[in-house]
Amino acid sequence: MCLGQGPNPNQRTFSNIARLYGTASGRKETVLDLAKFVDKGVQVKLTGGRQVTGTLKGYDQLLNLVLDEAVEFLRDADDPLKTTDQTRQLGLIVCRGTAVMLVSPTDGTDEIANPFMQPDGA
Prior knowledge:
Organism: Citrus sinensis
Helix content: under 10%
Shape: globular
Number of helices: 1
Oligomer: single chain
Protein name: Sm-like protein LSM7
Strand content: 35-45%
Distance between the termini: 66 Å
């Protein structure tokens, strides 16, 4: 008998395959485990260029996020892809999962200079 097959070779046993990946119940699990970020600071990048930081209060399987004490970093008027140091206080917000592109912790991250930028005059 091959792994992943039951007594009937035409029958696929999803439970055997799911057990290999740690999902014995057969339910979908997100690749990103956000449970370790609950009640901690996170930075969220959204489609369209918006960037928000706040305290993660909750989430669901669709990646809808609830952030408290949220702060949005405003974009440059000349270049909408760049964020500025100007911020806007948002408070308690819900980020829709379809708009979330990136979630990262704020603790342990520091901004560094871009190593690929050419110095002026080079």
